[in-house]
Structures are given as structure tokens and as C-alpha cells.
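To close the section, here is one more complete example, presented without commentary so you can practise reading it yourself. The ligand is 5-phosphoarabinonic acid.
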Amino acid sequence: MTVGFDYSKSFIKKHEVEFMKPFLKEAHNLLHDGEGPGNEFIGWLDWTEKYDRQEYEKIKTVASSIRQKADVFIVVGIGGSYLGARAAFEALTHTFHNLLPKETRNAPQIYFAGNNMSPKYMTDLMETLDDKEIYVNVISKSGTTTEPAIAFRILKSHLEEKYGKEEAKNRIFATTDKSKGALKTLATNEGYETFVIPDDIGGRYSVLTPVGLLPLAVAGIDIDQLMEGAHEAAIQYGNPNIDENRCYQYAVARQILHRRGKEIEILVNYEPGLQYLGEWWKQLYGESEGKDGKGLFPASVNFTADLHSMGQLIQDGKRNIFETSIVLESAQKDLEITEDEENLDGLNYLKGKTIGHVNRKAFEGTLLAHLEGNVPNLIISLPRLDEFHFGKLIYFFEKACAISGYLQGVNPFDQPGVEAYKSNMFKLLGKEGY
Ligand code: PA5
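Output:
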């Protein structure tokens, strides 16, 4: 019952892995001794052991109270303060969570805001809130990010208008820096309940902190299991021996493929609930490795849907890609395909088989086709899509990303490039000082 990794379908040769071993050893030591670039942001490495138990219990208590009282819970944040929670929410809750009757859901409807600058999105969201009991979690480490700040300003004034300033305070929860930043100051002045984003954990590594844990607990996700899975991963993937460490095998395999000339890594899933895992993963790898003129371009596809759109390019286009496929070993829910008297669609040969079975064959068939098309495949398998294995997978990707970044010779924990568009935008908006 573990996260599996198989690089036997990647055309990587044994000697290539052997060649990487000394570099891997160096990367492992840099990370674990805390002596690599960006070492002030490696708090996630042993987080599952050292996290603040008191804060964790507070998350559970607050979440349970919100679950009882709220019809709608709005999670406001962007980038690292958004994508992890969204990925876990989409993967681990009912596909149509917000449409289920409240008694079945046993949790509020969950909406995300502040992750775009779309006037339509925000207006449409506000239009769904009539007659609902609303609670808000605003998440921002810096406290100054424009998208969530604008969304929060609108939601705050809506809550204050609807409930009065005093009651609005009881419905707003701020997740931010422990002592500094505009959101911290606002939360202190207004008297909001706050949760702390640790100083030594950057946004894209923060899903297992209150950033992800509060929204996920409110959504009814078992955060104990999530943390337990991640903790088991932290122990297993602390092993410096690549032959026993699948996470390191992944980090090394993608660097070998990159050095062979592959420019694009495509994360593939066969489960719509994993679409946002792809979005989270793209930020994690794109922001960590895409710098100093280097970096694999992380892309993602959702199969089988995208086999009908991107399948052609992957099979037959420029051979600068490899795939990392996420495969679920078992379907927790499944439906049987029934016999039809007329059989006009010709599907009677599948009578008694399940959709899950067909999905599996779609994966196996696609894998064979793409291998024939010279697309190396790295395969990550999960026994089932549950909190424990999702927690493990999160840590798997985080640790592999850090190691891969060190193998590539970059600082995997900074993001100097993300500021460039902001200063242009602020200048155009007439912000003081720009
Ligand atoms: O990783 C990053 O730096 C970004 O994606 C940030 O997480 C994102 O901009 C949100 O930042 P903040 O939490 O400060 O609002």
C-alpha cells in the first residue's frame, strides 16, 4: 500500500542512473544538512514531525464549528496559497460536492476566490451568495497579493453589510504570516481568528500547513490521514539510497530525460479529480526549476478527455516530451456496463465490465502507443485515491522537486521571476512608488 514508481518504460539505461548517483548524494546532503541554496525555506522537509500540535487542534475545532454553521465557505488565495488546497479538495471530495444536498455533504459548499482577476468570476460568485450563511478564509503569506486582496475586500464588505461588523469578524479567518504583512495587521486590527504560515515554508510547499489544512478540514477531508501519509513519505523518502527511494528515482529520471534533450514533462491523469493536482504540480515544478535560463516545462493533460485533443501531438509531434502518468490501482466507486438488446453502439462485448476496467485498458493502450511513438513514460501509481495516499503523493512531489532542483543547479525555493509582471501592472494602474 504505497506510492509506486516505475521508470522501466522510460528508455533510461542503468548506467545513466549509476552516473547520477554521486550528484544525487550531493543533492541529498545539501538538502538534509540545510546547506543548499534557499535553505531558509526547507521547513516543509520535517514539517510532518515538527508541526505545531496546538495550532493543528485549533484548525480541527474551528473547522468543525464552521462545518456546522456555514452553507458556503469561500477560500481566498492564489498560487501557493490556493492550488494545494484546491488539488486536495478536487481529488478527495465528491466530484459534485457543491451540488449534493447539505445532509449528504456534511460540509459547506466550498468556493475558491482571489485566484484570478476576472470580473465575471467574482460577480457570478457574489450572485450565488444570497440567503446563504457565509464564512471566509483569506490566505496570503505576504498579505499584499493583489488578486486575493481585491476579492477579500469585496467579500469583507459584503459580510459586514449582511451581518454587521461585529458578526462579520466571527466569520472571517485569516491564514498569514505570524507577525508581519498587511493581512496580519488587518486581522489584528479587526480581531479575526488567525492561522500561521511558517516563515520557513514557501507558498508552493505549504499545502500541509494551515494554508491547506483549514479549508480541507472544513470540506470534510480527514486531515489526520493526510498528515499521516505525508509523514510516512517523509520517513521513506529520507533514505539516501536511490534503489530504495522511489521519490529519488523520479527526481533522477526526469533530470536524465532532460539531459537527453526532453524539454517538456507532461503530467498525465486518468481521473478528472486529479486535474488540479496537475495545476499544483505545475506551480511546484515550474516555479522551483524554471530559472537561470533552465528548467523543464511542466504541462498537464487529463485523459481520456485530452486524448481527443492533445493525443495527436503527444503521439506524433516533436519528440521533446516525456510523460509522467498517475495511475490509480483501484477505483473506489465503479459502474458496470450493461447489455443492450439492440447493441447499436456495438458495446455489448463490454457487458459486465466496469468503467474502471475500460479506463485501465485506456491507460495500458495509451502507454503502448506512446512508447511506440518514442515518448518515455514515468509511472506513478496510487493504490487508491484517499487522504493517506494523497498526503504521501504531495510529499513525494515536494521532495522530488527539491532534489531535482539541486541536481539541476538552481535554488528550488525562490521565485525572483514572478515580480516582473507585477511592477508593470502596478505602474499601469498608477500605484504609488511604481
Ligand atoms: O509561490 C509563490 O510565491 C506564489 O505563487 C505565491 O504563493 C502567491 O503569489 C501567493 O502569495 P501570498 O501567499 O503571499 O499571497
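Once you have examined the C-alpha cells, check your reading against these statements. The first strand starts at residue 4 and ends at 6. The radius of gyration is 23 Å.
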